[in-house]
From TrEMBL:
Name the record gives this protein: DNA-directed DNA/RNA polymerase mu
Catalytic activities: DNA(n) + a 2'-deoxyribonucleoside 5'-triphosphate = DNA(n+1) + diphosphate
Keyword annotations: Magnesium, Metal-binding, Nucleotidyltransferase, Nucleus, Transferase
Gene: DNTT
Keyword Nucleus attributed: yes
Top-tier EC class: transferase
Length: 362
């Protein structure tokens, strides 16, 4: 019957890595509101609240049923007083002002290269639009994203991601026929749209992966489809313990690219706004090159979602006394690194049931 809870809520874990979350979100109304608030708290550096709303959103995303009444959420984890107040809609005025602030924030952070800090700085200076920024003499640094802003702020479709996959695959094979190439990020989780396309690429022979990445970039450049490249060399040092903070970038060689994708390469058509008749668009692509012995950790780490990753690390730390990051799993009790060839090995080390990539949309 309507309003009832078909699954026993007591079985819902507080950890996203113990829940199965597909792309089908039955509580978008609430999770959107929670995410507006989470983002707002993040900008204002109120970390606790931010995290609380992110966790609450993630719990609701995992439910196979739609929340109809507040009572239905009674036994759910991570839903505190504040989140319940939002569900009850007792804070609509607050939500409204947050939403106004957020529309500027997300306008700014949607520019490739603009992070939370920069967006917040611009906002505090009273800047509210791109024109404000471009005409403000204090802003001396213009991120690369401004170059292709219209294109890269538009979602990438599955068909476009596939077309890019073919281009990358062709480039990789031409250089190293037996290279390992894997789709990661949102598209690996079965999302229909993304803000970029993420790939992992490596070589069966240890130590050759960085050269492969550089050669791929070089090839894309010669094909005249490389519009922008931010290359970061590897800074891997295995003497270091895994970093405790998830937000820390990993140390693999990687590049953040903007590529030119031709309409003719895409099954169907490019994602375009009405009236746009160009034969190509710009797309953001991330390529990461972990050494083959770190492959499983890199694949798990880059497959996301961000919330799923956060909770994997939190679960490892709090429930297993282990440190997990994109490079390794370290057992603090045994004082040793735990080896893994596949993602399944990592879940097994953590004593977790395996969660498929399409169930990680936490
Ligand atoms: P979208 O569709 O918006 O791209 P996504 O899940 O693919 O969604 P990304 O920002 O592309 O999001 O990142 C993919 C995953 O890779 C994230 O979930 C995050 O865990 C991981 N990740 C992203 N950037 C880094 C980085 N610099 N260092 C380590 N891990 C990262
Ligand atoms: Mn992505
Ligand atoms: Mn990415």
């Amino acid at each position: 019957p309507e309003g009832s809870t078909p699954t026993p809520v007591a079985t819902v874990s507080q950890y996203a890595c113990k829940r199965r979350t597909t792309t089908q979100n039955n509580n978008k109304i609430f999770t959107d509101a929670f995410e507006v608030l989470a983002e707002s708290y993040e900008f204002n550096e109120i970390e606790g609240r931010c995290l609380a709303f992110r966790r609450a959103a993630s719990v609701l995303k995992s439910l196979p049923w739609a929340v109809q009444r507040l009572e239905a959420t009674q036994d759910l984890p991570c839903l505190g007083g504040h989140t319940k107040a939002v569900i009850q809609d007792t804070e609509p005025s607050k939500l409204c002002s947050f939403r106004r602030q957020r529309s500027c924030h997300s306008l700014f952070t949607s520019v490739f290269g603009v992070g939370v800090k920069t967006a917040e700085k611009w906002y505090r200076r009273g800047l509210r639009s791109f024109r404000d920024i471009l005409t403000n003499s204090h802003v001396v640094f213009f991120p690369a994203g401004f170059l292709h802003y219209g294109d890269i702020s538009r979602a990438v479709s599955e068909a476009e991601a596939r077309a890019l996959g073919n281009i990358i695959d062709e480039a990789v094979r031409a250089i190293t026929p037996d290279a390992v190439l894997a789709l990661t990020g949102g598209f690996r989780r079965g999302k229909e749209f993304g803000h970029d396309v993420d790939y992992l690429l490596t070589t069966p022979e240890l130590g050759k992966e960085e050269a492969l990445l550089l050669s791929v970039i070089d090839r894309l450049k010669h094909q005249s489809i490389l519009l922008y490249c931010d290359y970061q060399a590897s800074t891997l040092d295995m003497d270091q313990l895994p970093c405790r903070r998830f937000e820390a970038m990993d140390h693999f060689a990687k590049c953040f690219l903007i590529l030119r994708l031709e309409a003719g390469q895409v099954e169907g058509d490019l994602q375009r706004v009405e009236g746009d008749s160009r034969s190509w668009r710009a797309v953001r692509v991330d390529l990461v090159s972990p050494p083959i012995d770190h492959y499983a950790f890199a694949l798990l780490g880059w497959s996301g979602s961000r919330q799923f990753e956060r909770d994997l690390r939190r679960f490892a730390r709090l429930e297993r006394k282990m440190l997990l990051d994109n490079h390794a799993l370290y057992d603090l009790t045994k004082k040793e690194f735990l080896e893994a060839k596949t993602e399944k090995d990592i879940f097994a080390h953590l004593g977790l049931e395996y969660i498929e990539p399409w169930q990680r949309n936490a």
